[in-house]
Amino acid sequence: MSTAKKIPGTETAWDDRTLGASEEHAALAPQDLQQQVEETLAMQMISIRLPKHIITLFKALAQIEGIGYQPLMREALTRFAEGEARHVVMQMAREDKQQRKERTSKKAA
Prior knowledge:
Blueprint: H1 11-15, H2 31-40, H3 52-65, H4 69-108
């Protein structure tokens, strides 16, 4: 008879890291699989220099969120870029609308 503690295989056990967080059972994926994942996710490694205090802030925030600081940075950059892109598109649409309105006014005059 086994005396090993059994861990229930529930979603809660995964969420609270009872399951799936043991480094003892972790292994680095083969290089070809890593490459395939990066290609599938359309990821590209870059190098960037940031002020140390920004990295420290991201590390602290990431710890609170329970994720790594690099995924948090990726999320922050994604949110910023998508928000700025929407802003630019909306601004261009407003300018286009204004130009059409001005052309219509000139034709009516």
